[in-house]
């Protein structure tokens, strides 16, 4: 067995001593148990969560074109008041409908000043 030196905060040492007293064990024995329990939780194949998740869709037969995915997300988040509305609409006509175009025209007319400004009531 190899001996190690570890620095722990005082609060952790107090907690560790309390657990050791409750269990009737030494501090070192509680630490050994904790390391064994932690080691038991590690994946058996040695892969971490990132490695397991990377490429998951492809491994399960789900494939998609990343450019198509990005195009749809961009169109999904584009609103009629956005400066790039026409550009995104041209790239993704299937993601827009007549109501989107109607709202865009209302917005453009409003910006151009085609709608009269409401009159403010006089205050005394």
Percent helix, as a range, is 55-70%
Ends: how far apart? 90 Å
What are the secondary-structure elements, in order, as H or E? HHHHHHH
Q: Radius of gyration, rounded? A: 32 Å
Average residue pLDDT: 87
Low-confidence stretches: none
Proportion of residues in β-strands: under 5%
Strand count: 0
Plain-language structure description:
This protein is mostly helical. Helix content is 58%, strand content 0%. It has helices spanning 10-23, 27-41, 49-53, 56-59, 66-77, 85-91, 98-112. α1 (10-23) crosses α2. The termini are far apart. The model has no long low-confidence stretch (mean pLDDT 87).
Summarize the structure.
The chain is an all-alpha fold and 124 residues long. It has seven helices and no strands.
Features of the shown structure:
single chain; 124 residues; mainly alpha; 58% helix; elongated
């Amino acid at each position: 067995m190899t001996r190690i030196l570890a620095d722990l905060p005082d609060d952790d040492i107090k907690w560790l001593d309390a657990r050791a007293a409750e269990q009737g064990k030494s501090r070192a024995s509680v630490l050994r148990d904790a390391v064994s329990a932690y080691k038991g939780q590690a994946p058996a194949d040695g892969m971490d969560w990132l490695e397991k998740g990377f490429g998951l869709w492809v491994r399960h037969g789900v494939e998609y074109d990343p450019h198509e995915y990005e195009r749809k997300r961009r169109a999904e988040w584009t609103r009629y008041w956005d400066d790039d509305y026409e550009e995104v609409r041209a790239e993704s006509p299937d993601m827009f409908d007549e109501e989107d175009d109607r709202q865009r025209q209302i917005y453009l007319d409003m910006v151009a000043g085609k709608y009269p400004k409401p009159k403010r009531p006089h205050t005394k």
